[in-house]
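pasting for ref
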Amino acid sequence: MAETLQADESRESLKFRGRPKSMVSAAALLIAGTLTFTMGIDRLFFVEAIAWTFLIWGALLLYGHVIDLGTVYEVSDDGLVINSPLRFWALNRKWDWGHITRLDVIVRRTEASEGDAELHVHYTPEDSTVLFREDLPYISGLAEEIANRAGLSPARGQAMQSFNSLPQDEKGAYTWS
């Protein structure tokens, strides 16, 4: 009996992981900043300042990519749980379905694949006027679960009515509310 209860609970909760992004820009900035010091061309203050700027921006970009990669989105009957162990200012957030007000699918190019789109989930807590927005990678299963469980429907007249296929003819923002 206990085994069937655990199996039912695990079916109700779905987990999605963040998508890896290209870390080439972060690596390029880190390498350029490091090479400035190893090649000995940091004799001028301006060159050294730019090298430190490259190192800091490269480290920040790399940290942002690692945060996105390590984030886990859990969809359960209670709500959407966002676990980000490396985002120290917001480790865990739990958003209940009744207060998720809008879901946007942003398609950034024509003939787009899932990597060319992202999700914006809008949430307003109870008795508050503050609007929170979480930018998620576009995963069709995650988008469909969020829309179904939050009771969101697509806006009238928009080209995207289903999460299974992205519009290929045009880029744009598609809203479920």
